[in-house]
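Researcher: Here's the sequence for the chain we discussed earlier.
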Amino acid sequence: MELILWRHAEAEEGIPDSARELTDKGSKQARVMAEWLKSKLPKNTRIIVSPTKRTQQTAAALDDNFETVRTIGPGVSAKAILAAAGWPDAKGAVVVVGHQPTLGEVAAFLMSGEPVAYNIRKGAVWWFSNKKKGDVAEVVLHTSISPDML
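Model: Thanks. This is the structure I predict for it:
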């Protein structure tokens, strides 16, 4: 399984939190990262997205064929993200467009087994895979890249 964590791009301040839209910079971040992802994602990649406006706009830069999943909105647990994605047993690739600090907690858990807080920058992608060697599962971080690196 491939698990791609994509933090929403830069968003405006405001209330209600769920209605915050991407800034001009955020829209550019989303477009740049989406172009990079398009050339690398396997066919039939599943895209699951938090219901907030900013995550929906970020995901739409990649593809408008995505699932809105309420259980991956702001403030959920790392376990909720992994369950929604089907980690580690789902087939193929899953992109999760979500929020900090939860995405950072997912990354930390996958890399260390501890739910500590890693910082994932706005608009950045962390790409993991789960491979089995015999009876042993191996988590591999393929890349961690932010829009300003592209």
